[in-house]
Amino acid sequence: MEEILKAEHLNKYFYEPERFHVLQDISLSVNKGEFVALIGKSGSGKSTLLYLLSTLDTDYEGALTINDTKLTGETQNELAHFRNKHLGFVFQFHFLLPEFTALENVMIPARKLGKYTVKEIEHQAMEKLKLMDMDKFADKPSGKLSGGQQQRVAIARALINEPSIIMADEPTGNLDSSNSKIVFDILQELARSKNKSIITVTHDIDFAKRADRIIEIADGKIVLN
Question: pLDDT below 70 — which residues of the chain?
Answer without folding.
Answer: none
